[in-house]
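Please, structure for the following, as tokens.
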Amino acid sequence: MSLEKVAEQDGREVWLAVLDRPEDAADWAGTARPRGGILAYLDGWSAAELDRFCAEALKLAPSEAAFAGAAAAEARAALARKAPGLASTVRGGEPLDESVWYMFFASYEPDPATRRQPPLIVAFRAGDPRAEEFRRLAARFPAAMNEVLERE
């Protein structure tokens, strides 16, 4: 598993997580601050693996989660079983940059101690080519987010 900060805009950190197994999400708590958003692409995992991922990701106390890709609806259902009150969405077939834009600009309460917005973690399974697409997007994050606005 890897977790790396790939962008920061207006004090908000954006992290890329590449997961080898569902339990890798437990390692986020040691690096990324709590209460952030999670955007996850978990295609190919079984229902049991999605359940384990959600259990581990919830340890970071996210304020919102979104799922995209082929497993999005199943992943959201797994999350709802574990945390029925947590805001969550299925991002459907939107392009990656639009889903990232949606999650990045979601309204989160700033950390009372630091007054900074909590992080956004974008997670992919190992081998998912969208991870490299996201890495390229993150390298030019402000411009990429503005491009989404211009398309609207």
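The mean pLDDT is 92. The longest helix spans residues 47-57.
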